[in-house]
Design a protein that fits this description.
This protein is α/β, with parallel strands linked by helices and about 325 residues long. It is built from twelve helices and 13 strands. Bound molecules: alpha-D-ribofuranose.
C-alpha cells in the first residue's frame, strides 16, 4: 500500500488502495547498455582512458517497464529482441523484474538493440543502434491489440518506428485507454499522433524540437505548450532534470511548476524513464496529475542514486520511506 506524504487528497489515497497494481502496457525499445565511465568527455578526435566498462539492461521502453513493475504495476512489454545472447540476457532480466514477456518477440537474423553510453561529469551521452527494435512493426502491434485493450494505461516512447507509435496510439484510442507518450529521443511528431496523446512528456530539448521554440523562460514554455495544445495534446508534462517539472492540462492550460528533489546523482541515465513510468503508474492508480508529477519527481530523483539505468529504480516502499528535501542540488 502506498502512503505518499505530499498532500494527496483522500479520494486519491482511497483509489490507490483499491487498485495499486494497475495494468500497464509498455510499447517500446529494449537495449543492452554498453556503458563507459570516464572523468570527462573526450574532444572530437581525441582518445582518453576511461575507468570502467559495464554491460547493463536498458532501452527506454524496457527501463520504463521495469520501473513500473518495481512500483507494483502489472506490466506487459511489447517489443523486439534479436536472436543473440543479448536477447536472452534481456528476456531473463524482464523475468527477474516480473515484467510479462508474452508480447516480447524474437527477430531472427537481427541483433538486439544496443546503446553506447558514456557517463561523465554527472551526465551521459548516448548513441543507440536500434537493431531488432526497428522490427516492431504496426502489424506486430495489431497482433497484440488485446494486451493494449486490457490495460489501464499505455506507455510509449520513440525508439521504435514512428508508424508503430502511431498504431499504438490509434489502438489505445479505439478502446479509450489513456496514452502517455514520452517523445524521446527527440523526433518531430505528426499531428495525427499528437491528437491521440493524453499525456505528452518532453524534456526541454524534445519540446524545442517539437515546437521550434527555444525553451529559456516561462513565456517560452507557455508558447510551446500552446502549440502542442492546438495540435490536440490533452496534457503536457515538461521534465527539466534538477529544475523539476512543469505541467499544464488542456482544460485551463495553466502552467504549474513542481520543484525537483534535491539529490547528488551517481548516474542520471534512465531518470526520464523512471519519471514516465511512475507518471503512468500513479495516473492509472487514479491520482490527479499534480500528485502524479510530484510522485514522479521523487521516483526520478531516487533512480539516479545507483549506477545504470535500472539498478536505482525504486520500489513503492522505497519511495514511501525515503526522506527527501526539495530543491536543486
Ligand atoms: O533513457 C535511457 C536509455 O536510453 C538507456 O538505457 C539506453 O538504452 C537508451 O535507450
Amino acid at each position: 500500500m502506498l502512503n505518499w506524504s505530499l498532500g494527496i487528497q483522500q479520494r486519491e489515497k482511497e483509489s490507490l488502495q483499491m487498485n495499486s497494481n494497475p495494468k500497464i502496457a509498455v510499447v517500446g525499445s529494449v537495449n543492452v547498455d554498453l556503458v563507459v565511465e570516464t572523468e570527462r568527455y573526450p574532444q572530437l578526435g581525441e582518445t582518453i582512458l576511461g575507468s570502467r566498462f559495464s554491460e547493463l539492461p536498458g532501452g527506454k521502453g524496457a527501463n520504463q517497464a521495469v520501473a513500473a513493475s518495481r512500483l507494483g504495476a502489472d506490466v506487459t512489454f511489447i517489443g523486439c529482441i534479436g536472436d543473440d545472447s543479448y536477447g536472452e540476457f534481456l528476456t531473463k532480466n524482464f523475468s527477474n523484474e516480473s515484467v510479462n514477456t508474452q508480447s516480447l518477440l524474437k527477430v531472427e537474423g537481427e541483433h538486439s538493440g544496443i546503446a553506447h553510453i558514456t557517463v561523465a561529469q554527472n551526465d551521459n551521452l548516448i548513441i543507440v543502434i536500434p537493431g531488432a527494435n526497428y522490427a516492431l512493426t504496426p502489424e506486430k502491434i495489431r497482433q497484440h491489440e488485446e494486451t493494449i485493450k486490457h490495460s489501464d494505461i499505455v506507455l510509449v516512447q520513440l525508439e521504435v518506428p514512428i508508424e508503430t507509435v502511431a498504431e499504438t496510439v490509434s489502438i489505445a484510442n479505439k478502446y479509450n485507454i489513456p496514452v502517455v507518450l514520452n517523445p524521446a529521443p527527440a523526433t518531430k511528431l505528426p499531428l495525427h499522433i499528437l491528437q491521440g496523446v493524453d499525456y505528452l512528456t518532453p524534456n526541454e530539448t524534445e519540446l524545442t524540437l517539437l515546437t521550434d521554440i527555444e525553451i529559456d523562460s516561462e513565456e517560452s514554455i507557455k508558447s510551446a505548450f500552446d502549440i502542442l495544445f492546438k495540435g490536440g495534446v490533452k496534457n503536457i508534462v515538461l521534465t527539466r532534470g534538477a529544475k523539476g517539472a512543469v505541467f499544464a492540462e488542456n482544460h485551463n492550460k495553466q502552467l504549474i511548476f513542481k520543484e525537483s528533489y534535491s539529490i547528488t546523482p551517481v548516474d542520471t541515465t534512465g531518470a526520464g524513464d523512471a519519471f514516465n513510468a511512475s507518471l503512468a503508474f500513479s495516473l492509472a492508480n487514479g491520482c490527479l496529475l499534480d500528485t502524479a508529477v510530484e510522485f514522479s519527481n521523487k521516483v526520478a530523483a531516487l533512480s539516479t542514486t545507483k549506477f545504470g539505468a535500472q539498478s536505482g529504480l525504486p520500489t513503492a516502499e522505497e519511495v514511501n520511506y525515503s526522506k527527501m528535501i526539495k530543491g536543486e542540488v
